Amino acid sequence: MPEDARARQRTAAGVGLLLTLALAAVLLTALPDDGEREGGAGCVPRAVGSWSTDERLTAEFARYGDDASRVDDWTGGDGTHSVRLPDGRVLWLFSDTYLGQVYGPPNPVGESYAWRDTTAPLVRNSAVVMRDRRLESTLPTPLFPDPAPNQWRWPVAARVEPRSPGSDEKVVRVLLWVRTAGQSPWIYGVPTATEVATLSLPDLRVESITKVLDEQLVQDPSRRVLFGTTLVEEDGWTYVFGGDDGQAASRPASSAYVARVPEGRLGEPGAWRYWDGAAWTAGARPRAVLGDGRRTGVGSAFSVVRADGTYVLFTMAAGTKGLSTVTSYWACSPAGPWHGPTKDFSPALPHAQVAAYNPQTHPELAGDGRVVLSYDVNWLETAGASAQISRNVSLYRPRFVTLRLTPTR
Question: Where are the extended beta strands (E) located within 95-183?
Answer without folding.
Answer: 97-98, 102-103, 115-116, 122-123, 126-131, 134-138, 151-162, 170-180
